[in-house]
Design goal:
Blueprint lengths: L3 E13 L1 H5 L4 H21 L3 E6 L2 E6 L4 H16 L5 E16 L4 E5 L1 H7 L7 E4 H6 L2 H4 L2 E3 L5 E4 L2
Parallel strand pairs: 4-6
Antiparallel strand pairs: 1-3, 1-4, 2-3, 4-5, 6-8, 7-8
Helix pairs in contact: 2-3
């Protein structure tokens, strides 16, 4: 697959406090813990129309179609509920939309995405919270926007209390 430019909704999720928690585990316990977390991420993101691009430590990078902002937001909220259902760690999620280059890289031809929109996604905010960018917010329905308030950063929104 040659690289192509495409607009996608970008999604990253990670566990807040996992370094401290995993320090008390054996390597096999960490692997089992992360394996369970990855399966949860796959199931939730897939259910809402997304695709996990890659895992990075205790987090992931995923994409949704250009009109998939609502699915990305639903995934974020469900992953937070998943935490409440068993994980003792916070879940941080950031959601953005932008133009990326997508294609296959490396000898094993893994799918990946690149571009300034990916960098912007990772600069959006802190772990343990859910943040959406202004472009994602603008694409939500009026009803869905009511559940969000402008965050400290003027470029992102957090769930309303």
């Amino acid at each position: 697959m040659a690289f192509q430019e495409i607009e996608l909704v970008l999604f990253t999720a990670d566990l807040a406090g996992s370094t401290r928690a995993c320090a008390q585990m054996t390597p096999l316990e960490v692997a089992a813990f992360l394996g369970d977390w990855y399966r949860s991420i796959d199931a939730v993101i897939g259910k809402h129309g997304g695709r996990v691009v890659k895992y990075m430590g205790d987090g992931c990078l995923a994409t949704f179609p250009p009109d998939g902002g609502a699915g990305a937001v639903a995934s974020a909220m469900e992953l937070r509920e998943h935490r409440a259902a068993g994980l003792e760690l916070g879940v941080g999620v950031r959601i953005h939309v932008g133009i990326v280059a997508e294609g296959e890289v490396g000898a094993d031809r893994r799918y990946d995405i690149f571009g300034s929109a990916v960098n912007d996604l990772f600069r959006m905010g802190s772990a343990g919270s859910v943040l959406i960018s202004e472009p994602v917010y603008q694409r939500l329905t009026d009803e869905a926007r009511g559940a969000w308030r402008r965050a400290a950063s003027s470029a992102s929104y957090a769930p309303a209390p």
